[in-house]
Amino acid sequence: MDLTQMNVELFRIINDFGKEHTYLNHTFIFLAEYMVFVLGLMALIFWFTRRKENRFMIISAAIAFIAAEIVGKIAGKFHSNHQPFAELSNVNKLIEKAVDNSFPSDHTILFFAFCTTFFIYQKRWGYLWISIALLVGISRIWVGVHYPADILAGALISIVSAIIVSYIVPRLDFIEKFLLLYEKGEKHFFPGRDRSRDL
User: Where does the chain cross the membrane (predicted)?
Assistant: First the structure.
């Protein structure tokens, strides 16, 4: 069995679960479509804790995502495939999605960039974040819009990106200067407790 066939077979196994266990479909639709809003909300909550470490974490995650997206777009130039529902018959398609190049998965890049960065900065809850990223990746297969290879490629690109960026960003003086400048403005418009107690 070649890699392409393995990719399709694994897709069928995961996607067919939605036909056999329809009671789970709403959960996986939420993960595939709307979990991104939860991620965005969590990023905002972390940012407005006004803790230096959390702000470095969000900056690192955002940069990791941008870097991973760039690498992902380059990878998409070397290999491309349409979504499974556009290429295969009898796909359990549960959400609407335009037909385009689905390699690698942008959703997976986003979640693994942020969740891997959260894992690096917050060891206590790290495995929860990785579990969320994995579930979102699986959900994109479950609802019929990505192959496993799309998910795997997106995850690997983001994990490497997050590790590199999380090592570099805290060592960059201009990031520290940016935060100090930002916080001066923040204290002017949103006065509150003194963040210096968190440093």
Answer: 28-49, 56-75, 128-145, 151-169
